Amino acid sequence: MEVHFRPETESRIQELAAKTGRAADELVEDAMAGYLEELAQTRAMLDRRYEEFSSVNVKPLSGEEAFSTLRRRSQERRS
User: Under a CB-based contact definition with an 8 Å cutoff, are residues 27 and 16 in contact?
Assistant: First the structure.
């Protein structure tokens, strides 16, 4: 697979490779692996939350209720 970057991005990758002593392709591989893992975790979390919401285990709040709750909790922490 070939990946093409904008010149600025490629320059930053090359600079980081030089600073770390690692090959640029290793850095890109590691970055993509980390990104894909994080993306999978985010997707799993969203799927769980959607399941909770759709199974009525979670009560939806209006925007005003949510902000009111956040304000109250914030004030409680400050006290």
Answer: yes
3-class secondary-structure state, position 71: helix
Question: What is the Cα–Cα distance from 76 to 73, expressed in whole angstroms?
Answer: 5
Q: Which of 24, 1, 2 lies closest to 12 in space, CA to CA?
A: 24
Tokens 């894909």 sit on residue = 36
Q: Where are the alpha helices (DSSP H) in the chain?
A: 7-20, 24-54, 63-78
Please report the pLDDT score of residue 31 as a whole number.
96
The C-alpha torsion from 20 through 21 and 25 to 30, rounded to 10°, is -40
Model pLDDT for residues 32-62, shown as the tens digit of each residue: 999 999 999 999 999 998 888 888 777 778 9
Quick check: 1 and 15 in contact, CB under 8 A? Answer: no
Amino acid at 57: N
